[in-house]
Design brief:
Elements lengths: L3 H16 L15 E2 H10 L6 H10 L5 E3 L5 E4 L20 E6 L3 H7 L1 E2 L6 E3 L3 H8 L5 E6 L1 H6 L5 E2 L5 E3 L1 E2 L4 E3 L5
Antiparallel strand pairs: 1-3, 2-3, 4-7, 5-10, 6-9, 7-11, 8-9
């Protein structure tokens, strides 16, 4: 099986090509973000990833954020969310819990408290069900800060939410009125 470091390296590369730059590997994504597994494995070999289907399945199953999914017949694979390329993941509108969380770095806090949470280069703003996940996400970009999002109030006011297969909540924009730094609530 793959060593942890190799699995992490492959997961990061899969995130890149299945979410942002499929052309960097010479693959294409269909309208729903799927690509052929056999083609992916062949193309990965050209980039130094000498893996087989079982090793790819291992990376999909053990990824701590459940970033990837196989189709039911396991002939295709896609990223679950976070795309900057145009795809329709087919998520249905859902009622969110009253509160969700967003992790960011402290250097972005002042701007967020003026402009709200924007999707930036992605299709949606990503929100977590718990503050620990949000803190982990925020720590990728510096000293983390966790924001409480009043998702229930947003939904009541007409904002649309989706939930991915791996539990990430998505929305198009979070206005400032629905954001509060979580540490102010303690």
């Amino acid at each position: 099986m793959l060593k942890d470091a190799e699995a992490r390296r492959l997961s990061k590369f899969l995130s890149l090509v299945l979410r942002h730059k499929p052309d960097q590997l010479g693959i294409s994504l269909d309208a729903n973000g799927w690509t052929d597994v056999d083609t992916l494995l062949t193309k990965l070999k050209t980039k130094g990833f000498r893996i087989d289907r079982d090793q790819l399945q291992y990376v999909v199953e053990t990824n701590n954020k459940k970033r990837f999914a196989f189709s039911l017949d396991e002939k295709q694979i896609r990223a679950n969310q976070g795309h900057s390329v145009a795809v329709d993941l087919g998520y249905l509108q859902q009622q969110p819990p009253q509160f969700l969380y967003h992790g960011t770095a402290t250097q972005f806090l002042d701007l967020i408290l003026v402009e709200g949470l924007k999707k930036m280069g992605r299709h949606h703003v990503h929100l977590s069900i718990d503050d620990q996940t949000a803190r982990s996400v925020g720590s990728r970009h510096g000293r983390p800060v966790v924001l409480l999002v009043k998702a229930g109030d947003m939904a009541a006011d007409g904002h649309v939410f989706y939930q991915t297969d791996n539990g990430v909540w998505l929305t198009n924009y979070v206005p400032v009125a629905y954001i509060e730094p979580a540490n102010r609530l303690q």
